[in-house]
From TrEMBL:
Pathway: Cofactor biosynthesis; riboflavin biosynthesis; riboflavin from 2-hydroxy-3-oxobutyl phosphate and 5-amino-6-(D-ribitylamino)uracil: step 2/2. This is Riboflavin synthase. The keyword Repeat applies. It comes from the Bacteria. PANTHER family: RIBOFLAVIN SYNTHASE, RIBOFLAVIN SYNTHASE ALPHA CHAIN. One of its GO terms (molecular function) is riboflavin synthase activity. GO terms for biological process: riboflavin biosynthetic process.
Length: 217
């Protein structure tokens, strides 16, 4: 589990094909690796990856075909910058929102504008996840916990303050860039709760014919 508060910006130093899968190696920049162990999870541009090798300055992880199909990793190259966050601890300050590291879809930057010192982005999203995105709600974009400031058909607006731009990769985003999106997990649980409740409702045996026969219609 993560919070979407990026701890460091790393660099992809190697992408190695492994059959249909790939292995990646990431230089972690300023990320503290002193408490990392084999098998730990590190969110890499919002994708939960399992550490299979590491040292004080880098880690490697394997990506399955499923991960490649569902994320923007197919467009990445060695040298690309990535947002990094280690899995949260029980003692971690919860500054963002609940992030699972399981990408729901790939979006695209469709507009970029400067508004004072802030950067305003419009981001397109797959239609099947649009229902989970609410104005003033949370969304994860390449591993960054952000607030949705406005909506239009299958697109949402982000306003990026200077600090976020300095501490993540988002200041470098240009029109046409693909980004990993994860919707607020609470929205998915709420949908499932409501759907389950509807499914469990017993079908009524009262019909229009019954009402007519008994003088109610």
């Amino acid at each position: 589990m993560f919070t979407g508060i990026v701890e460091a910006v790393g660099t992809l130093t190697a992408i190695t094909p492994k059959g249909e899968d790939i292995s990646v190696t990431v230089d972690v920049g300023k990320l503290d690796m002193s408490d990392v162990k084999l098998g730990d999870s590190i969110a890499t541009n919002g994708v939960c990856l399992t550490v299979v090798e590491f040292n004080s300055t880098s880690y490697s992880a394997d990506l399955s075909l499923e991960t490649l199909d569902k994320t923007g990793f197919t467009d990445y190259s060695a040298g690309d910058k990535v947002n990094l966050e280690k899995a949260m601890l029980p003692t971690t300050r919860f500054g963002g929102h609940i992030v699972s590291g399981h990408v729901d879809g790939v979006g695209e930057i469709v507009e970029r504008n400067m508004v004072g010192r802030a950067i305003e982005f419009w981001v397109s999203m797959p239609g099947d996840i649009a229902k989970y995105v609410a104005e003033k709600g949370s969304i994860t974009v390449d591993g960054i916990s952000l607030t949705v400031n406005a909506l239009r058909k299958n697109q949402f607006k982000l306003t990026i303050v200077p600090h976020t731009g300095e501490e993540t990769t988002i200041a470098d985003f240009q029109v046409g860039r693909k980004v990993n999106l994860e919707v607020d997990v609470l929205a998915r649980y709420m949908e499932r709760l409501l759907t389950s409740r509807e499914e469990q409702q017993p079908e009524s045996s009262i019909t229009m014919e019954f009402l007519q026969q008994n003088g109610f219609a």
